[in-house]
Amino acid sequence: MSLFSALKRAIGAMPADEPGTALYAAIVGEARRPDWYVAGEVPDTMDGRFDMVALVLSLTLMRLEADTDRAAPQASADITDRFITDMDGNLRQDGVGDQVVGKHLGRMMAALGGRLGAYREAGADDAVLAQALARNLWRGQPHAEDALAWVTAEARRLQARLAATPFATLHGGGWPSA
């Protein structure tokens, strides 16, 4: 079963009224958009799909960090909790035993934190963002420069769409259209 099938199943298993579920589902939906894997040539592997969820989640967390709404920090915590629940479910579905699930989740959270830090540090510098994307999405493997340029530009477009989307819309699971 693919990571996205597992993500879809795990999200479907989450109660719809659980805080952050709708927004997390929208994040996964964005990360699953075929353009990332076709035009952007992001590897369509378990690692590549994880890294796309981490990218979109990071951009969303950064958007929420910039929001002045008092509920934004809780919304960030809620979607991070959904990510943990989702990854836990995927690990268990893949047969990872209880004794090591925590260790795997710790690595996934560290990976998310590292990516969030790199994307945050890039700020408005497209060259720094491109370096972080190349390092995280292709993990040292060769990649086409035009694909990297597309992913960098698309990540910036997503950031702009997120910034233009009111907090209440995002918080309710509404996603900015392309």
Automatic annotation (TrEMBL):
- Reading the lineage from the top rank, the first entry is Bacteria
Among InterPro entries, the record links this protein to: Ubiq_cyt_c_chap, Ubiqinol_cyt_c_chaperone_CPB3
Alphabetical list of Pfam families matching this protein = Ubiq_cyt_C_chap
Location of the Ubiquinol-cytochrome c chaperone domain: 41-168
Q: Where does the signal peptide begin and end?
A: none
Q: Which PANTHER family match?
A: UBIQUINOL-CYTOCHROME C REDUCTASE COMPLEX ASSEMBLY FACTOR 1 FAMILY MEMBER, UBIQUINOL-CYTOCHROME-C REDUCTASE COMPLEX ASSEMBLY FACTOR 1
| Family membership | Belongs to the CBP3 family. Belongs to the UPF0174 family.
User: What protein name applies here?
Assistant: Cytochrome b pre-mRNA-processing protein 3
Native species of this protein? Polymorphobacter multimanifer
